[in-house]
Fold this sequence. Notes:
Layout: E1 9-13, H1 19-26, H2 31-35, H3 44-47, H4 52-63, E2 75-80, E3 83-92, H5 97-101, E4 118-126, H6 135-149, E5 154-157, H7 170-173, H8 178-183, E6 187-193, E7 196-202
Parallel strand pairs: 4-5
Antiparallel strand pairs: 1-2, 2-3, 3-4, 5-7, 6-7
Amino acid sequence: xxxxxxxxxxxxxxxxxxxxxxxxxxxxxxxxxxxxxxxxxxxxxxxxxxxxxxxxxxxxxxxxxxxxxxxxxxxxxxxxxxxxxxxxxxxxxxxxxxxxxxxxxxxxxxxxxxxxxxxxxxxxxxxxxxxxxxxxxxxxxxxxxxxxxxxxxxxxxxxxxxxxxxxxxxxxxxxxxxxxxxxxxxxxxxxxxxxxxxxxxxxx
Length: 204
């Protein structure tokens, strides 16, 4: 399947999407439907006690989906030819409690973890039937402008380093690949593990 033309993909803040659109993207099977982009929002010890329905409810609350007047939202929704096709989480880094406690983003870097001026892209979901069409690449590029317009001083991602011949499951690639961040203008600032990079773009 070939990538869609850029003109066929439109991206909006998630509060401009509907709950039905979000539900269509996350689906009813697979890891996305069980997580609802809450992995970085819930502490390790609490994860197993929060059912999928509650995670879905929290996502709707965090996005303010259906409320175009909302002053904030937690991500972006992509449409391909008018159909809801993908999701990208992008918020101030401080919103992700598990990220703040993780070793990976901070290895070899002197960072103030409480700096809300640094935003992060933590998750991509592409709807079944819409994959390999350039959805994640378009979302990564849109996240740059989205964060900058809302006052971010920098934006980070923590993608997988993909190499020819390797295979990955959604359990790894939900953070995105290094290539899509590089295409969006991010620069690699560290390699905390052989399979994980920290990518960053500074706005000032």
